[in-house]
Amino acid sequence: MNPFDFLKQFQDLQGKMGEIQEKLKHISALGTSGGDMVSVELNGQMQVLSVKISKEAVDPEDIQMLEDLVLAAFTDAMFKIKEKIREEMSSLTGGLNLPPGLMGL
User: Fold this and answer.
1) pLDDT in tens, 2-38
2) For the chain, how many structural domains are there in total?
């Protein structure tokens, strides 16, 4: 890749960053675990919007299981939100040929 082409593409991307940041505030993903006994919702800025735990998931004798369910739901939400961000970035950058991992995704 020609370094000047890359620089031009990067400048184009910088121009769209404000739009991207605004869109990230409004997308969200819900991660679940344990047959939906635990759910975690994240927005595109990786902020936790909600955590829900059903009564069936709470066993005072098995706190480790609840911790594992919360971790699994959070991991699921992270995977889903990253996929949504990739899709959003792809549509907003208009197919710019960006190097893999440039945006941390």
Assistant:
1) 778 888 877 777 777 777 788 888 999 999 999 999 9
2) 1
